[in-house]
Design a protein that fits this description.
The complex is a heterotrimer of chains A (164), B (139) and C (366).
Chain A: H1 2-23, E1 28-34, E2 40-45, H2 50-59, E3 67-75, E4 80-88, E5 93-101, E6 107-109, H3 119-129, E7 132-134
Parallel strand pairs in A: 2-5, 6-7
Antiparallel strand pairs in A: 1-2, 3-4, 4-5
Helix pairs in contact in A: 1-2
Chain B: H1 2-14, E1 40-41, H2 51-55, E2 61-67, E3 76-84, H3 93-97, E4 103-104, E5 120-121, H4 123-127
Antiparallel strand pairs in B: 1-4, 2-3, 3-5
Chain C: E1 7-11, E2 14-15, E3 20-21, E4 23-29, E5 32-39, H1 47-51, H2 56-64, H3 71-86, H4 92-120, H5 125-145, E6 154-155, E7 158-159, H6 167-190, H7 193-199, H8 207-212, H9 218-221, H10 229-232, H11 253-277, E8 297-305, E9 308-316, E10 324-328, H12 330-334, H13 338-342, H14 350-357, H15 361-365
Antiparallel strand pairs in C: 1-4, 2-3, 4-5, 6-7, 8-9, 9-10
Classes of the chains: A alpha/beta (164), B alpha+beta (139), C alpha+beta (366).
């Protein structure tokens, strides 16, 4: 196990170097190994370069994260976060990519042009959290319908007609 | 054509097999002991610890306790105990946390009623419920 | 002059062949579909929002109701997520029981798919045969857990009950029985010329499409991608068993059919090995603190459910309720490709294509 963690560390540093070369020093906010998530390398990028980073992690020969396993948002009260779990099927590696956005005006670039699989998950995040994905071909409230008021997964959401 | 004939042969063979359908509701369905149905409640065993209320994922249990009528004894005894079977999902967590096995599961599962109010079962309903009690209640 | 007009056809939401409450708006010109718009959300119960006010043990019964055809895998994914965060060791016997239960669930789920898919295609009897054999699995799982579908069997750190006396033996007897039945199914359906000409080449997509649209499970493996979380990122005890990942190259409905049928066979193989290896006694619940409080931080784990990769994300603030919980529900991701698949198709193929994706609406809507 120890060896595996060391390897993941080197892997992460390698990814970070590639990204730094392509988008400059300032785009990356943080990077670490998430020990709670089976030691998955995690990279947090700034909102402005998020789409650019997504393109690089998919196409760079040393990364090739061509499969989007999961995309969702979380309301952390101080900010909104978009969480992507990426998988490289050819290299058998995974990566967590995150970006933060403002809570009152949550706007993030859409990654549907990179992974078509992000189509519905982005709608889900928009529906339940109100995160707008710019460039999404058909952003709509996928579960609750357009006339639903408020975004239920936000921490300050109040139900209009509570059961009790 | 060959594949189709093979399928026909399989179908015809089934005619000789024994029937496997249940004759429900004329005959009751055999259920294993662990099956989870409508709860049985023993008021005399209850110590009013509130654990079943706290663990219930759908908040369908409500109970109140009162002081023990015998002044020499400490603790509380149960006064009211209601389960709302409109929202109870029979998940077995209340019987799992109960320290005295005052609430246990039975094998009775037929809950259909003509009136919604009959789905609110109170202490007497749950106490008088005496058939098909589950024998093994703790893992 | 002949004039053609676009017509809107509404399929569902209450139609048996949509396998739940799923609505499809089709724009058709004659028999050809120009545009297909899926409408979902009829079964959205807000599991993730409800779960934010519940303790981890209380969330387990809610997960039963997502993919209600294989509730065991759903139980497992949340337990696995919490166990990964807290570093809880699970006793061996419990883990074997989990594997047996999950694989039995996989067989049962694929049987439902097999029966209903053929029913969709117009063949009645396979449905009855599939449910006859599924009933045996359901009976086994009822004996183990106490419920027919919503098992609520797993607990954080182990399982609720040890197997009753003689249960393992019953499972061991079931495996050869199921193998014989499976051979019969192949005799009945797999070689049937009508069936093959109905599904061959229908709903075809390429490997690149499957990866781009985040398909998983048999939908992905039918295009030649050998990707199974049990093999590629082993969780639980799956590295101890000898089994193959069935892969087909064609990417059409027939390939998906073949993949799923081969998966039943592999699951039986796993069950057989697990029944042999399981320790005859031992605890079934590990050392778990009385109050389950995962450390502050976040986790994401995924496992292989019958429908694909099911994942669980938990963000914890160190309290007994999750701050945010999110399930990656494979049916939701798998269904995304449907508008693309239906475009330009003949209307007679709609149900054949939708059925081959294998969705459970409880899982699509979350």
């Amino acid at each position: 196990m120890e060896k595996g963690i060391d390897e993941r560390n080197q892997e992460l540093i390698h990814y970070v170097n590639i990204l730094k070369n392509q988008i400059g020093e300032n785009g990356l906010e943080d990077y670490y190994i998430n020990e709670l998530a089976k030691h998955t390398p995690t990279i947090v990028v700034k909102q402005e370069v998020y789409q650019k980073v997504a393109k690089i992690v998919k196409s760079h020969p040393d990364m090739q994260f061509e499969y989007l396993t999961e995309l969702h948002g979380t309301d952390f009260q101080t900010h909104m976060e978009v969480f992507l779990y990426l998988q490289s099927i050819s290299r058998k590696r995974s990566l967590i990519l995150k970006t933060k956005t403002d809570r009152d005006q949550p706007i993030v670039a859409s990654v549907t042009s990179i992974w078509e699989g992000a189509m519905w998950p982005e709608c889900e995040a928009y529906d339940l959290l109100g995160i707008r994905f710019e460039g999404h071909p058909n952003l709509h409230r996928i579960f609750l319908g357009e006339d639903w008021k408020g975004y239920p997964l936000r921490k300050d959401y109040k139900d209009e007609n509570p059961l009790k | 054509m060959i594949g189709w004939l093979k399928g026909m042969k399989y179908t015809l063979n089934q005619g000789t097999k024994e029937k496997i359908t249940y004759q429900y509701p004329e005959e009751p369905i055999p259920l294993p002991d662990r099956f989870r149905g409508i709860q049985k409640f023993y008021p005399e065993k209850c110590i009013v610890c509130n654990q079943c209320v706290n663990i219930c994922p759908t908040d369908c249990i409500q109970l109140t306790g009162k002081k023990h009528p015998d002044p020499k004894k400490r603790g509380k005894i149960i006064e009211t105990y209601d389960i709302n079977f409109e929202i109870c999902i029979l998940c077995d967590l209340c019987t799992e946390v109960c320290p005295t096995e005052a609430i246990i599961m039975t094998n009775n599962f037929e809950l259909a009623e003509y009136s919604r109010s009959k789905l609110y079962k109170n202490l007497d309903d749950l106490n008088n419920h005496v058939t098909n009690l589950r024998e093994e209640n703790k893992a | 002059m002949l004039r053609t007009e676009e017509m809107i056809l509404n399929v569902g939401p209450q139609h048996p062949s949509t396998h739940g409450v799923f609505r499809l708006i089709l724009k058709i010109d004659g028999e050809i579909i120009h545009e297909a718009t899926p409408v979902i959300g009829y079964l959205h119960r807000g599991t993730e929002k409800i779960a934010e006010d519940l303790q981890y043990t209380q969330i387990i019964p809610y997960t039963d109701r997502m993919d209600y055809l294989s509730a065991m895998t759903n139980n497992y994914v949340i337990c696995h997520a919490v166990e990964t965060m807290m570093g809880i060791e699970i006793p061996e016997r419990a883990e074997y029981l989990r594997v047996i239960a999950m694989e039995l669930g996989r067989v049962a789920s694929h049987l439902v798919w097999w029966g209903t898919y053929l029913l969709d295609l117009g063949s009645q009897s396979p449905f009855l045969y599939a449910f006859r054999d599924r009933e045996m699995i359901i009976n086994l799982l009822t004996e183990l857990s106490g419920a027919r579908l919503t098992f609520n069997y797993m607990r954080i750190g182990g399982v609720k009950w040890d197997a009753p006396d003689g249960w393992i033996k019953k499972v061991q007897e079931f495996v050869p029985y199921m193998r014989r039945q499976l051979a019969g199914y192949h005799e009945l359906v797999s070689g049937n010329e009508i069936f093959i000409s109905r599904v061959k080449g229908v709903g075809k997509y390429t490997k690149n499409d499957a990866i781009a649209y985040s398909l998983s499970g048999a939908n992905l493996r039918s295009t030649g991608v050998s990707w199974d979380v049990r093999k590629n990122d082993p969780y639980s005890l799956y590295d101890r068993f000898d089994f193959d990942v069935p892969v087909r190259q064609e990417g059409d409905a027939l390939a998906r059919y073949e993949c799923r049928m081969a998966e039943i066979d592999q699951s039986l193989k796993i069950i057989e090995q697990a029944c042999e290896q399981i320790p005859s006694k031992g605890p079934v619940l590990g050392k778990v603190p009385r109050m389950i409080r995962p450390p502050k931080g976040e986790t994401f784990v995924r496992i292989e459910s019958p429908r694909g990769e099911i994942g669980c994300y938990i963000a914890s603030d160190g309290s007994k309720e999750p701050y945010r919980i999110k399930f990656r529900r494979p049916s939701f991701y798998n269904l995304q490709i449907l508008p693309k698949l239906l475009k330009g198709e003949n209307i007679a193929n709609v149900i054949a294509i939708l059925g081959a994706v294998d969705i459970v609406l409880g899982e699509v809507d979350g």
